[in-house]
Design a protein that fits this description.
By secondary structure, this protein is α+β, with helices and mostly antiparallel strands. The protein has 16 helices and 72 strands.
């Protein structure tokens, strides 16, 4: 790949020793709350250990800081502050310690003296430098970096800062360690093998992991034998040569330290030594950290009406009309008046004008799954455009109006001319909406390009598809920068084909291009305010969304607001109803109460009384329980593919409230308003927009945020659009996470446990989430957590949302949720087929879930729950299955220790408390959100899924009513499929569908 001079200047900064001042944020410093306490830690989850050369001291990484303690154990002393985000220490001669730090938003190597002095940064730049290890003589540091296109082993000369690469593409190397004589480095490759390399680059493979296992933490043992941790679910072994010397322990998988026949390692939350006779001894330690115990007041509110802010995917016609989705309908705005085009219970989205402005193409699921429809704006007639056996979403007319480009549910780009369709890209991971060159020979869209296989994050770039030559070409919008989101933030080609617009760091940029989309100059910033969802208005102006407003800006910066006049209001509550139930659980009691009437008035519970007289609804054979709350899902991760089915499936399984900690913002706001206005059927919906991320991203709905100035833009959007919470994501540095806490007006959550518990974060998502480290400090690879994690959770009051992906393992002996009629009818066909196949695979060698890991996760959650902590149920749907996964999570909690009542509380009272709303209960004054089920869920948790009717805010739905719209999908005669273009051949490893990444705790 040839680089421009600009790129070379940006990318070729030399590694240098850069002095950094220690932060003032230390124990007892600025981040500690007025209402806080100090928590004593005596165990560590996924900690590593290093021993000083004189054998007197140990260094460990506990809660993302470096600590030292005497080799025999004792009180640990903290060397690094919270902003340093420091891990993986390695002692060198003279007591110096090298470690990796994420302080500036990339991993870099730092050194510090054992007494805490002399902190110095050794590497810099936009690539990551990880997992350092001092050579025996202290003159070199081995580490891995993605600076060469994948993770390779590098060596840094401490005196000069010069870096030498030892291995490179296509390696995904990890955790190098030195031989005793300093001539070789041992490391793992892709968790599948153990290799060595000499300083002159000679490679040797020592170990290949057996099928079904992974290897971590390689080191040289006695006699130069390889030593490493070998893992599979339920088993972690420390191996020397070919012999497992430690088994039956939760070995953490970091490099052990061998001395003759004895070994020092970490396992079971402890630092542990084992001598040559097999005698095991723990090295005790004690460390104290501050936590904030007062969480911010929750500000979630029920929307009641007002100006419409949920304007989704606006586009502009040649004569200046604007089309968009709002309140579950399509509108055209012209002359200051918005005219509704569609109105119904289905999902109509993503309109685009024909070149002559007389027609609109859009996606609708009215035939059962999302397909392309065309509306004639003069006759108001609709017709199917070019039916296909897959979903058809985000369509875009070609400049001559003869073809449409669209995406399917797997992220493949197709082009159709009504008679036939042709695939033009391979499967892409959550790409953006296509845009056409003026001559129709190139299609461009946003697509992610990772830095390496080992860590999935990358930058969202412009992908040009040459429809004539059949080639794909990635282009960074700016060096090391991402298009803001891979949705409606560009690229968008100007009508005359000479410019492309896109959003970077939440403002608009325009760049001159040739006919194939190749940049012909430098991008120029054209807006200074929050800018989303770009569309061209002629060739000299852009229309975009600014915190719920439609704005227009000329390329020289003159901005006006385009009024649409749309408002909405909450519908009138249903009439008073008396419901006779055979039994009910109020959300607190230990036993059901029998034969009562629930009186509902004004959308709330007016009274619960002994049954008398005639009731409006006879549910005497059913049990009423509070509607369930799923506190972690992402409505629009596959929202266009699911369409209006999604609201129905949540209700059909008794889930009356959902909380999304991350969604494309305007899709989210539009759906939230539509549900609140009653124009879309579904549960209550509380949510945030895109998660605030760092310099690298993965999912299409993450906001790459690189500065406090940009963070202010992100928080302004959150405030003006009324986010119910904010989520900070994997690559956001601690300093910006702290700034988000200080500047936010709503609760915050993330994937991180500490220092989040001291910064003032309100919750952690997942038991152990996707993490920039590649592993978690809250849960081990075997699914276990130790005293440090539990103590911080219970002391701080932070919520934990387990998202028990491994609960799918329970399908090994009960597949009823996967085969249920509600699942079969309300899941899109491809989702149902994948879900059923996965359920059928559990308990077989093809199964992807583990009961052993699941048990550890639930036991962790149970310790937090019974220790006074705050556990709330969530699933990460649709990465796990919407609605059915909520019940599978509850069943897993009961399977491994929770009582049914305790499990139900995590899906009712607790998430209601997090939201700050009087949900999760059946009592006078509470909203009438009720599931009517067969059986007694307090005796058998499976009964909670036996939903026959469900009520939200007093509005009653039967399950047959929810199934009816999709009970009989139309059988369509599909258009012909032509041979794919050469550009559709998959030549890149990262081209895969979003659903293929079925791993725990993605977001």
């Amino acid at each position: 790949m040839e680089l421009s001079r600009r790129e070379l200047l940006t990318r070729t900064s030399q590694a240098a020793a850069v002095a950094t001042a220690a932060s003032t944020l230390t124990i007892g410093g600025a981040a500690q709350a007025e209402s806080g306490e100090r928590v004593k830690l005596t165990q560590g989850t996924n900690i590593s250990v290093s021993r000083s050369r004189d054998g007197k001291w140990l260094a460990i990484d506990l809660v993302t800081a470096i600590w030292v303690l005497p080799a025999g154990g004792g009180v640990a002393r903290k060397l690094t502050d919270e902003l340093q985000d420091a891990t993986l220490p390695s002692f060198g001669p003279g007591g110096r310690i090298v470690f990796q730090s994420y302080r500036d938003g990339n991993f870099h190597l730092h050194v510090i003296e054992r007494d805490g002095s002399g902190l110095r940064q050794l590497t810099s730049g936009k690539y990551d430098h990880r997992e350092p290890a001092f050579s025996p003589d202290g003159e070199l540091i081995a580490f891995v970096s993605d600076r060469a296109g994948s993770y390779g082993v590098h060596v840094l000369e401490v005196a000069t800062g010069e870096i030498t690469q030892l291995t490179g593409v296509p390696d995904e190397a990890a955790a190098p360690q030195w031989s005793a004589d300093g001539t070789r480095v041992i490391f793992t490759v892709g968790n599948a093998s153990v290799d060595t390399v000499t300083l002159d680059g000679v490679r040797e493979r020592l170990v290949t992991a057996p099928a079904g296992t992974q290897v971590f933490g390689a080191a040289f043992g006695p006699g130069g034998q390889p030593s490493y941790t070998r893992m599979r679910p339920g088993l972690a072994e420390l191996v020397l040569g070919t012999t497992a010397v430690v088994s039956g322990e939760d070995v953490f998988g970091f490099a052990p330290i061998w001395s003759d026949g004895s070994v020092l390692y970490t396992a079971d939350g402890r630092i542990r030594s084992r001598d040559e006779n097999g005698v095991v001894k723990d090295v005790p330690f004690e460390a104290t950290v501050p936590v904030r115990t007062r969480r911010r007041p929750h500000r979630t509110r029920n929307l009641t009406g007002g100006p419409v802010k949920g304007i989704a995917s606006p586009v502009v016609s040649g004569d200046g009309k604007i089309a968009f989705r709002a309140l579950n309908a399509l509108y055209v705005l012209s002359g200051g008046k918005a005219t509704k085009l569609t109105d119904g219970r289905y999902f109509d989205s993503d309109p685009d004008f024909s070149p002559d402005g007389r027609k609109i193409v859009y996606a609708s699921d009215r035939s059962g799954v999302a397909q392309l429809w065309v509306r004639d704006l003069e006759t108001d007639e609709d017709e199917l455009y070019a039916p296909a056996p897959h979903a058809q979403i985000t369509p875009r007319f070609s400049p001559d109006g003869t073809k449409v480009a669209y995406l399917d549910q797997d992220g493949q780009v197709w082009i159709t001319d009504r008679q036939a369709r042709r695939q033009v890209t391979p499967t892409l991971f959550q790409p953006g909406r296509p845009t056409w060159s003026k001559d129709g020979n190139t299609v461009a869209l946003a697509a992610v390009k990772p830095f390496s296989r080992r860590f999935r994050e990358g930058t969202s770039q412009i992908l040009n598809v040459d429809l004539v030559g059949g080639e794909l070409k990635y282009t960074e919008p700016l060096p090391f920068r991402s298009i803001a989101t891979r949705g409606d933030d560009g690229p968008v080609w100007s009508p005359d084909g000479t410019k492309i617009a896109f959003v970077v760091e939440s403002v608009a940029w325009v760049v001159p291009v040739d006919g194939k989309g190749v940049f012909q100059g430098e991008p120029r910033k054209v807006t200074n305010e929050v800018t989303d969802s770009l569309a061209w208005h002629g060739n000299d102006s852009l229309v975009y969304l600014n915190n719920g407003r439609i704005r227009k800006s000329t390329l020289d910066g003159r901005v006006t607001t385009i009024r649409h006049g749309l408002t909405w209001r909450k519908p009138k509550a249903p009439e008073r109803k008396v419901i006779h139930v055979g039994a009910y659980w109020d959300g607190e009691a230990h036993e059901l109460k029998r034969d009562v009437d629930i009186v509902v008035e004004g959308g709330s519970v007016k009274e619960v009384r002994p049954h008398r007289g005639r009731a409006d609804v006879d549910a005497s054979h059913l049990t009423a329980i509070p509607g369930l709350i799923d506190a972690h899902n992402h409505w629009h991760l596959r929202g266009r593919q699911w369409g209006a089915r999604q609201g129905n499936v949540w209700l059909a399984y008794g889930i009356t409230t959902v909380r999304s900690p991350g969604d494309p913002v305007y899709q989210m706001v539009e759906t939230r308003e539509a549900l609140a206005a009653g124009t879309l059927t579904g549960p209550r919906f509380y949510a945030t927009g895109e998660a605030v991320d760092g310099s690298r991203v993965y999912y299409n709905f993450m906001r790459p945020t690189l500065s406090k100035a940009q963070l202010d833009l992100e928080l302004r959007r959150a405030h003006e659009l009324g986010y119910d919470m904010i989520k900070t994501y994997v690559r956001l540095p601690v300093e910006l996470q702290r700034a988000a806490v200080q500047r936010s007006r709503v609760p915050l959550s993330s994937h991180y446990h500490y220092p989040a518990a001291n910064l003032g974060m309100d919750g952690q998502e997942h038991v152990g989430a996707t993490n920039r480290l590649g592993y978690s400090h809250t849960i081990t690879r075997q699914g276990k957590a130790y005293q440090d994690v539990v103590a911080i959770f219970t002391a701080s009051g932070m919520s934990m949302t387990p998202t028990l992906f491994q609960s799918r393992a329970l399908y090994d002996n009960d597949k009823s949720l996967a085969t249920d009629e509600r699942t079969r009818v309300l899941y899109p066909p491809w989702e149902y087929e994948r879900n059923l196949a996965d359920a059928n695979a559990q308990g077989t060698p093809a199964g992807t879930s583990s009961r052993a890991v699941l048990r550890g996760w639930v036991e962790f959650a149970l310790k937090v729950h019974r220790g006074g902590g705050f556990v709330i149920t969530g699933t990460d749907a649709p990465l796990d299955s919407p609605a059915t996964a909520t019940h599978q999570n509850l069943r897993a909690l009961v399977e491994y220790g929770f009582t049914p009542r305790e499990a139900l509380i995590t899906a009712t009272r607790n998430p209601a408390k997090w939201l700050g709303l009087p949900l999760g209960a059946i009592k006078p004054g509470a909203p009438a959100d009720i599931a009517f089920v067969e059986g007694n869920p307090l005796a058998d948790i499976k009964a909670a899924a036996n939903v026959k009717q469900v009520m939200v805010a007093g509005r009653l739905h039967s399950v047959p009513e929810l199934l009816e719209p999709y009970q009989q999908s139309q059988v369509l005669t599909t258009s012909a499929a032509l041979d794919p273009l050469p550009s559709a051949e998959n030549k890149h490893w990262w081209h895969e569908p979003e659903w293929a990444e079925r791993v725990c705790c993605d977001h």
